[in-house]
Specification:
The longest helix is centred in the N-terminal third of the chain and has 57 residues. The two termini are about 40 Å apart. The protein is α+β, with helices and mostly antiparallel strands. The protein has three domains: about 180 residues, Beta-Lactamase, CATH 3.30.450; about 100 residues, Helix Hairpins, CATH 1.10.287; about 150 residues, Histidine kinase-like ATPase, C-terminal domain (Heat Shock Protein 90, 2-Layer Sandwich), CATH 3.30.565.10. The strands form four sheets. It has a five-stranded antiparallel beta sheet with strand order 4-3-7-6-5. Strands 9-11-12-14-13 form a five-stranded mixed beta sheet. Strands 1-2 form a two-stranded antiparallel ribbon.
Amino acid sequence: MRIGLRLLLGFFLVLGLALFVVLRIFLEEVKPGTRLAMEDSLVDAAYALAQLATPDMKAGTIATGGFAQAMTALPSLKPRAEIWGFQKNQIDYRITVTDARGMVVFDSRGQDLGKDHSRWNDVFKTLRGEYGARSSGESAYDADRTVMHVAAPIRDGEAIIGVLTVARPNQTLEPYIQRSRDRILNWSWGLLGFSLLIGLLFTWWMASSLSRLRGYANAVAQGERAELPRMGRLSGNTEFSDLAQAVERMRLKLEDKAYVENYVHTLTHELKSPLAGIRGAAELLQEPLPEAERERFAANIQRQTERLQQLIDRLLALADVEQLRHLRTVEPVELAALTRELLHTAEPKLRRKDLQVQVSLDEGATVRGDRFLIAQALQNLLDNAIDFSPHEGALEVTVRREEGRVEWSVRDQGPGVPDYAVDRIFERFYSLPRADTQEKSSGLGLCLVQEVSALHGGTLRIHNVSDPRGCRASWTLPA
């Protein structure tokens, strides 16, 4: 399982568990909390009304006095109150008064007059001087619709002469409870969605940063030219940025060490042959020799010296290109004009071999890159084509545009690339003998071209062709 998916699942597991616990507590506490608040208000109302009922209770006119008349009128009142979006158009209180025996002597709705309520908790406990309250069904046939009753004592001095009970159906609170639940759920879903977005962004940030670092490390391990990945603004100076810098420093140190070791090894190997030739010729020149032999050995020393100079120059150029991670100079390069310049420079070599050049150049075919490096790469491809062409042969040089890309190619009529060398022609110091002289080059030209192509995002291809026989080198670059 990918680390990004693990992070996301872990984040939502913790978030989901926390949200579940919080929601459960909230939803379980909304209804009891609302009812407790209602009970608290009923206590205040019961004691206030008990004080108002005391004079009539003492006078024995509780059923017909002013208190009874005022309370009996409660059901007919229309408050027309708007509470939290709900309309309240009736009084939900029911007032009952019992005497010291628990018998109902007043009922604002007239339903229980004369009944014995002495066994109900609200009356029973209040008559004993305790706090009395109960919640019971509205009727024996509807136990689900409960009514909360809160009682207060009616006193004559210290003696309790009656009990006043205020009752209110719990059902009247349901709209408010449901509204609270709905709001809690809506906000919870909103919080969950917002957390999902934050979690996705956070996971994407971490996964993408790790993916860039992993891709960079894999590219370096495979020997590809890779640039240090950008961590983006979100990463800032975090551990990801520090890790990327640490990996880059490690890569540079390891690469430099391997680069020097490889070059010392290969350069030592390649220098042996020309140095041996120079040493052998120099030893022979120390002895008396005919003039023709002396000139032949001197010419051999000169050729081997030129080969050493070419090897060093090419090696320095290749080392400079291989150390580049990106182009230092980027400018428009018109390949048709550059090709004509290179052909003009190569004219002496073309004349020595009596080569005919067929040119097909799309004017305006332009790429972006380092003009000097592109010229070096094209010069190497052109020199190879000339070196492997037979005398009085022909070269075809083409520049054409197609679908956002530009292809530069040169075709010779030489022997082509042998099958055993197809997979090795881009190796450093690997070279094939020229058809006319059987001499080898430095073996660094195509390696240089490949490095320059990689820097420019191009594609290099060398393959044999037939009719007529020869070899074609093509280099495709973004237009």
